[in-house]
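Design review, sub-item: ligand-bound model
Attendees: FS, YL, KQ
YL presented the inputs for the pyridoxal-5'-phosphate complex:
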Amino acid sequence: MRIPLAKPEILDSDIDAVVHVLRTPNLAMGPALVEFEHAIATYIGSPFAVAVNSGTSALHLALRCLDFREGDEVIVPSFAFAAAGNVLLRERLTPVFIDIDPRTLNVTPAAVEAAIGPRTRAVLVVHTFGYPAEIDAIREITRQHTLALIEDACEALGAEVNGKKVGTFGDAGVFAFYPNKQITTGEGGALATSRPAIARRAKILRNQAKDASLDWTGQHTETGYSYRIADMNCALGTAQLSRIDSFMERRQKVAASYEARLSAHPAILPPKSACPYGSISWFVYAVQLAETFTRQDRDRLWQSLLDRGIGAGRYFAPLHNQPVLKGRYRQSGTLAVTESVASRVLALPFFVALTEGQIDEVCSTLLRLLTPT
Ligand SMILES: *Cc1c(COP(=O)(O)O)cnc(C)c1O
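KQ shared the predicted structure:
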């Protein structure tokens, strides 16, 4: 791709931070891990952060730490990354799919409340594409109904609701640091929580469920995982996190440039760029094509961009349509918005180093492709 969909910014200082770890004997479970966890917790304003090898691992640990029982229901958007479906099925939980708002692409408090049934035990809120969900109002609902609340903030590091960072509202919040995210560790993720018992248990589970506080002969009281993250990754994460304000500001500028060029076109609906109750941390720039466009139209456009060396993405194929989920979920209300949005969404190249010239090229190519010949 001449203009990729995503690209991390790796400076010499990032490289130095990784090399520094490589010159020490501590490549895993060392001081860089402790430092990264402290940096994440401090930045989002959470008492605890537990770093792991992926966002999916963090999400899995969040579920494990909440002690659900087989068949318990978790309310979740169908418009979400595959990780949500995978970890819920892995834990033998039943997803209850709900629809999203057509502009924020997030679940709404009303849809969450309407989906609660006798077996519902939790709500998994996704802050889609970095636009914060109405997590304050959703938290009120989960409190009233004594449900657990998990935030998938993997796309929303730095986003806020009423002055508080997302990922800190529920029992657990999870973040991811894949190279297309706001900050990267290569591969990596983190679980944030204000509950000491969850933080402690997550740390134990990530390392084979070895509880070092027990007698050596019997330290494994449940099944655990190998979800540790290496210290090299953590050092990269800490170095990247030190530039989060700059990353967010530059991503916001790229979003504004796209909006200025695309908003006048009748076939394109740019993403919502203001949040009345909080602030956005831009993750991708995903436009919606007009409702007259079919999925096939969108796919042709997507392929044409790729053919011209311009990265483009189709997020997300609805979870309720995935063969693996067939017969294994409940649905609340219609998923019409999810179906419609998923077939018309088109993500454009989006990263901090994207130049005005490149944005021009992406937009002029897109607009040309949209003009009937
Ligand atoms: C990136 C992401 C994750 C986690 O991804 P990993 O590849 O496991 O790090 C989870 N949920 C959402 C919504 C994501 O965008």
